[in-house]
Write a structure and sequence with these properties.
The chain has 82 residues and is mostly helical. Helices cover 56% and strands 0% of the residues.
Length: 82
Amino acid sequence: MPLIPRATRTPPAPVPVDLGRVMLVGTALWLVALAVCTVLAAVGTATWMPVWVCLAGIATGAFGWDWARRHRTTPPDVAPPA
């Protein structure tokens, strides 16, 4: 019995995705989480640690968005094929 089974069919083609848009949506969600965590920390319900985690998520998303923008394979005005 082999450890790695042989592929019986070819894998599907990768789906074209605009990574810049994915990074912006993720960063926007971190911004919403930051607002919620800041309010909770300000009223004393939570500690300030989640606020720092949200800030790290926003920073990571900003770096990811910049990377996706610089490594874009299609021009921004061309839509991927449906």
